[in-house]
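Could you help me review a protein record that somebody else here produced? This is what I was given.
***
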Amino acid sequence: MNNDSPYDIELNAREHKSVTVETYIDVSEMENPIQGGSAQSMNIIIEDDDGKNRRL
């Protein structure tokens, strides 16, 4: 999932939005590719225009 990241999502002040991120992972050149799976505990960083950030 890191191949095309970071994914940019912009929200206005006090705006609430549910976001779904879908991506394709190219495993054609991996030595032992996985057959399926899921991801948990994603690192989410909120950053404002001044460069201040918050990790969730």
Summary: The chain has one domain: 1-56. The CA atoms of residues 28 and 54 lie 35 Å apart.
